[in-house]
Amino acid sequence: MISREVVRTVFLSALLYASLARDAGPQSETSAEDIPEGASTLAFVFDVTGSMYDDLVQVIEGASKILETSLRRPKRPLFNFALVPFHDPGATKWERFHVAVDVFPVA
User: Fold this and answer.
1) What residue intervals traverse the membrane (predicted)?
2) Which of 13, 34, 71, 83 is the most buried (most CB within 10 A)?
């Protein structure tokens, strides 16, 4: 079995590579004319807390397939994407979360 540290290192390396590859070109502001009609942004938020380790490997593989498929489609092109690691050790208290959610009114 692959250790958590290896998965975390590979994941963070992929994030860094994606960021550097995108930033390698000349810097310029993106205007509305530069964005193809119907283009979209694809964002992945990965829960990288220790309790999600077993699921994280499968989720990363699935996200890679989704990204590859999205990049190949000729219609409704993918303009950009984001990979976001999420780790909040304080968010493990689900009871406190549910109480906090109940504070918001539902319309």
Assistant:
1) none
2) 83
